[in-house]
């Protein structure tokens, strides 16, 4: 495949103990390390550099404004939300998987764990699970046979996960992986009302005023697959008004821009300790397209599953 379009890295370009500012590839354009990965010692660099180290000079870091006002407060709230989940064990078939379903694959290496989005290509009960080869920044990720992986998926109001390993790496007619068929699958059932705290900057348009009416900036403070809550310094709607909520989020390596039609179910005026007044709106999503529902599931269930 060659390293065309990539520039070589010197060992001195990599700072031990600091996040990588760009993804790192080998001479065949296989992804070795993602942006943000931390090299812990010189030995790791030496092992990685045996086949050359490269980076993409055109790669640009994506910015995303998703977070919480207080990490500790966020973790405490999320732990409370986990009380709305139920852990079960089942089989792969009970997931009711369909060809084309999005899966998340976590690849374990001696340098850490990386997560990638793949698609289910097919499966044979008690035989194999076939998924597309993971990619990052437009390049195939280097995978090895017998490499341990963790696979996660989302369906309805449940998140699924199972441990496996790569049985076979195939490159024709397309790049894909055969995974060892799991004996058991962990299922985390989540009530539809379960919400996770966020602090996402978004825009709300009041459709009762008009499709092309001006949007108002809001802060989305929690999200579920059926509704959300946001705060703003203006009273942008009345109860039962229809709104359109938009925001930018990043799910792993993919930026998404959901457009969510919703109905106002509650509106309250709240005051902070500093005396600043803000309006808090509770909304219910309406007629969600499949793509938007998948985005919400990924945002909510993935975080809950990863805390297990």
UniProtKB/TrEMBL annotation:
Provide the transmembrane region boundaries: none
What Gene3D superfamilies does the entry give? Electron Transport, Fmn-binding Protein, Chain A (2.30.110.10), predicted glycosyltransferase like domains (2.40.10.220)
**Domain PilZ span(s) in chain numbering:** 191-302
Q: Name one GO molecular function term.
A: cyclic-di-GMP binding
Q: What keywords does the record list, in alphabetical order?
A: Bacterial flagellum, c-di-GMP, Nucleotide-binding
Q: Where is the Type III secretion system flagellar brake protein YcgR PilZN domain?
A: 99-182
Glycoprotein listed as a keyword: no
Q: What is this protein called?
A: PilZ domain-containing protein
Q: Which organism is the protein's source?
A: Sulfurirhabdus autotrophica
